[in-house]
Write a structure and sequence with these properties.
The protein has helices at 5-31, 36-58, 60-70, 78-90, 100-111, 155-168, 170-174, 182-191, 193-197, 199-212, 242-248, 251-271, 309-320, 323-332, 344-351, 367-378, 383-390, 398-414, 420-427, and strands at 119-122, 128-129, 133-140, 145-151, 219-220, 224-228, 231-235, 239-241, 274-276, 284-287, 292-294, 300-302, 363-364, 417-418. By secondary structure, the chain is α+β, with helices and mostly antiparallel strands. Belongs to the protein kinase superfamily. ADCK protein kinase family.
Length: 433
């Protein structure tokens, strides 16, 4: 992992510079007779290729940001979606690995010089590579198959450097995901940085989830075997990656995975008093016995009392079109900026479309639906955009909102039809009247 701030900054700066250079080149090709559509498609493909190459090779905060963006790819307009979809999806599970010698050095530092004696087998070739660490397959000394997650040396420096630089380019990245607020996303990633780097804390989070879902017939959380500040060892689980189901799964499988994902998202605040806060397809698998396996617990929201009941009340009021009561509740809980004049009907018009998945027994989450919502709230000339500027999301709810939006993005990638209303009625306090 490149550590020096100057080197990382130069690579990140190459993204906007490269896009600008290709735009000039595209203008030249237009002059030589190529159609606007041909030129646009070529530029999109090359921009996506460069985006993956830079974010993936840097790992750290750059790749973490790319993974966060990847769940919103369903909102990207169809004419430019394909190359970005392919590039961003790669970020969910793959990146250039670190050499075996470096991996051994980290394991020796974290587990002791005789670390090899704790394993019956250890595969030097990583099974997966992520933003701040990579995963190796091994066999523990007692015969259990294990996943060994090893943090990249220099990950802390890289995260700090990346997130500072990415915030400078937030307007550029905004164009990749219309309707998604990139600047607050980067701010949240920066705030969670220390959590992401602390593998001991991650292991504790995973233990808490595993205890809450022990024996569950639908959700599987791998049990932690051992942990250190920069290494987590947990039970190995085999399954079909969510990205593969998104790419080629049949309708029945897509719908079932969508239902399982939604059940997990809404049930965990009640069952574990925690919310898994890294919802991208690389963190989920479907096991052979039909359970949803959940991975990576570096980022969680701690909800000792579950999701606040007024969230459910607001959702129900918006769904039922009760604008005056909705407006009163929004003001009471700080969701309207102080001193702003807002029409209750305008606020209802802005929020009600988000409750469409709960209006009927089942709802079909599609890319087209998400693109419609992103276009509606992202249109700077529209009334909904102006209304959104007067609304406020209190800091304590930022992660809940972002995770819900990310999970919705995955449902739209899955093209899943699920009984969303029944799930929300079961798990969301305040929704059922």
């Amino acid at each position: 992992m490149p550590r020096k701030g100057a080197a990382r900054t130069a690579k990140l700066a190459s993204i906007p510079l490269g896009i600008a250079g290709r735009a000039v080149g595209g203008w030249g090709r237009r002059l030589t007779g190529q159609s606007a559509e041909e030129v646009s498609a070529t530029l999109s493909a090359k921009a996506a290729e460069q985006l993956f190459e830079v974010l993936g090779s840097l790992k750290g905060g750059a790749m973490k940001f790319g993974q966060a963006l990847s769940v919103f790819e369903a909102a990207v307009p169809d004419e430019m979606a394909a190359p970005y979809r392919e590039a961003l999806t790669k970020l969910q599970s793959g990146a250039p690995p670190m050499p075996a010698r470096q991996t051994h050095r980290v394991l020796a530092e974290q587990l002791g010089r005789s670390w090899t004696s704790r394993f019956a087998e250890f595969d030097d070739v990583p099974a997966a590579a992520a933003s701040i660490g990579q995963v190796h397959r091994g066999v523990w000394h007692d015969g259990r198959e294990v996943a060994v997650k090893v943090q990249y040396p220099g990950a802390d420096e890289a995260l700090r450097s990346d997130l500072r630089q990415l915030q400078r380019f937030s307007r550029l990245f905004q164009a990749f995901v219309p309707g998604t607020e990139v600047k607050p996303l980067l701010a949240e990633l920066a705030a969670r940085m220390n959590e992401e780097l602390d593998y001991l804390a991650e292991a504790d989070n995973q233990r808490a989830f595993a205890k809450s879902y022990a024996g569950d017939p639908e959700v599987l959380i791998p049990r932690v075997v051992a942990s250190a500040p920069k290494v987590v060892i947990s039970e190995w689980v085999t399954g079909i990656p969510l990205a593969k189901i998104i790419a080629s799964g049949d309708t029945k499988t897509r719908n079932e995975v969508g239902r399982l994902l939604t059940e997990f998202h809404y049930s965990s605040p009640q069952r574990a008093h925690l919310l898994h806060s890294d919802p991208h397809p690389g963190n989920f698998m479907l096991t052979e016995d039909g359970r949803l396996c959940v991975l990576d617990f570096g980022g969680v929201a701690r909800l000792p009392h579950g999701i606040p009941s007024h969230f459910g009340e607001m959702t129900r009021l918006a769904l039922e079109g009760r604008s005056a009561e909705l407006m009163q509740l929004l003001r009471e809980w700080g969701f309207v900026r102080p001193g702003t004049e807002l029409s209750a009907e305008d606020v209802l018009a802005y929020l009600a479309p988000f409750t469409e998945p709960l209006a009927s027994e089942t709802f079909h989450f599609t890319r087209r639906w998400l693109q419609k919502q992103a276009g509606r709230v992202g249109d700077t000339r529209g009334r909904d955009f102006q209304t959104s500027r007067s609304l406020n999301l209190p800091p304590e709810y930022l992660m809940i909102h972002r995770v819900t939006a990310g999970s919705t993005g995955i449902l739209c990638q899955l093209d899943a039809e699920i009984p969303a209303r029944a799930i929300v009625e079961r798990w969301q306090p305040g929704f059922a009247a």
